[in-house]
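Field: COMPLEX_INPUT
Field: COMPONENT_COUNT = two
Field: RESIDUE_TOTAL = 610
Field: MODE = joint
Values follow.
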Amino acid sequence: MFETRLAQAASLVEAVLHDILSEAARAGETARPPRLLGAMRHGVLAGGKRLRPFLVAETAHLFGVPQPRAVRAGAALELIHCYSLVHDDLPAMDDDDLRRGQPTVHRAYDEATAILAGDALLTLAFEVMAGDAVHPDPRVRAELLLLLARASGLGGMAGGQMLDLEAEGRFAGGAPLALAETEIRQLQAMKTGALIRFACLAGAVLGGASPEERSALEAYGATIGLAFQIADDLIDHEGDAASAGKATGKDAERGKGTLVSLYGPAWARAELDRLVAAAGRHLAPFGPKAAILGEAAHFIAFRQV
Amino acid sequence: MFETRLAQAASLVEAVLHDILSEAARAGETARPPRLLGAMRHGVLAGGKRLRPFLVAETAHLFGVPQPRAVRAGAALELIHCYSLVHDDLPAMDDDDLRRGQPTVHRAYDEATAILAGDALLTLAFEVMAGDAVHPDPRVRAELLLLLARASGLGGMAGGQMLDLEAEGRFAGGAPLALAETEIRQLQAMKTGALIRFACLAGAVLGGASPEERSALEAYGATIGLAFQIADDLIDHEGDAASAGKATGKDAERGKGTLVSLYGPAWARAELDRLVAAAGRHLAPFGPKAAILGEAAHFIAFRQV
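Field: COMPLEX_OUTPUT
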């Protein structure tokens, strides 16, 4: 059953994250300042679906990659995701007090500590990905590192957050921009899409996939990334804070353009159906062993939180 | 002459930094949002001595490493240094308005953009280090990435900044801590020492140095890192804002403990003499070809800005 398999992957990655964020200083480290480590742990170990590591594990599984390697690579990716949440929640950014029903890192600690914790998590992600537990061949690790950096930085996630802040009209006069569909799609392909696409590509890289297999998994990743964002916008549009475990309705309040606000919830639900079907077509070359990834597309599109 | 050689290395790394921060989106990037790129360029291309890349280049030169590789690795390291300045200057951290006589990134742009610019520079550093222009052997790149991440993160630079903020009494009641000498040395070995040590080690890794050679260069790096910090504290203690190009006297104002405040400027100058001599001894195994690194130690210890 899908939820069971997702939970199993989460508990494996959780164990690796606990190990990575343990107290003892490691080779090449002078010390691990407790306040900073505490804030990092707060930002990482508060639960979550661990969807991105799950996607790494399941795409890697298509190629028979040993599970510990995929879990390690997934943990590195999850650290990037968690750092981005810590920084996006900051007062200068989205100014959120709650995350998964808990105080955000800058509320539990303070702003400076939250900035540093995000920085140190981002750095740690690359340290983990560079380690030989991810793959014995350094060529594979170097490629994963390159792809992860490109997905996360200026031309990917960080750039997407910049576009998002601009769209909300935080700068240059203060009025929210009325984004066209293509601009919304580009913003979302960067802000949330890039890491999800990377997750699916990572399994292919770990598994030494053929160029065709890589393209198919990257297309699958792009498709479910888009579904993920539309589902997220739909939850924000219709949800309430109690069930989502975070503040909702913020998009409208900020005058933020999403495909849901542009075309309405009925369109969004039809689009999600279409995307789930498209994801399934990208998986066709892998046959029945990719069934779980088809279920993942459905889960991502129709989740309630 | 030393200053000429330093300036030559700076202009080589400057060219690489310009290239890396050019406008066109690269493979794997969706787009380069102009506002974010502008803030990154502001944080990187405002000049500076480029001391860390110089140390990479000169230690690599001992082993006959082709110059473009060392410059590339040095540029990656410089991106880390620049990101740390952008974040350290933020209102929640050191709250500085000026850096090298120019407005800091959050003053020229805004806080959210400065946070994102730092994040994207940190990410870009790892992207550059993972690229094959640094070294054709991915094993070498993966090792550099590991060492760079450890020098920069929780157990290195970011951790050192955390200890520094704690020492200033920003948290837990607000009173500055009276640090003992060993605590000051640990803080400084992390906050500024770790990247300088890495710079010297990077040349050895690029050059396939023997374990003895690596140890000697790491010890040299640790020694000049300490000298760098004592010189910095001395400049802050005695300098004025006009000649230093930044606000000075801030350490005392913040009640911050340094070895200079603990033992006085006369002791500090004698200690710098001692450290320059010690650095020379670590270089002895390399003979006359390491003369420039001996001059670097002297420059670092007795610079005025």
